[in-house]
Every structure is written in C-alpha cells, then in structure tokens.
Design brief:
alpha+beta, three-stranded antiparallel sheet, 1 helix, 3 strands, 28% strand
Amino acid sequence: MSLPYNYSIQPIRDESGDYFYGRVLELDGCQSTGANFEEACKSLREAMAGYIETKLENGFEVPEPVGCNDH
C-alpha cells in the first residue's frame, strides 16, 4: 500500500449522473467511484487494500508500481 502506485481519478458525467471514477493503473480491476474527488480517492484506497489482501491470501503476486525498482 505504501508503494508509489499510479492512480487515475477523473470526473464522469453519464446517464447515472456526475461522479468521479478512479483506478490503480498497475492493479487490473482495482477501481472505485465517489461523489467527489476526495471520496473517490478514499474509496480507491479501500479497494486497493482489499485487492492486495485478496491477491496475497490466494497466493497470487501483486504487481509492483510502474517505475519501481530495487535500488
């Protein structure tokens, strides 16, 4: 969780209304939404924690952030 993962959070306007959609670029399927930027960010961090926990519990590797190296 403390590694420098890359997030994308953007405003969306569609048939369901206005909201913010966020995802973690390195973690396929790790995404969330919120009514505002702050809520989407908080929700995305919660989704990320669940995503990483589930991967580890099931013996899967968790991708490292892009640009993260072993220096």
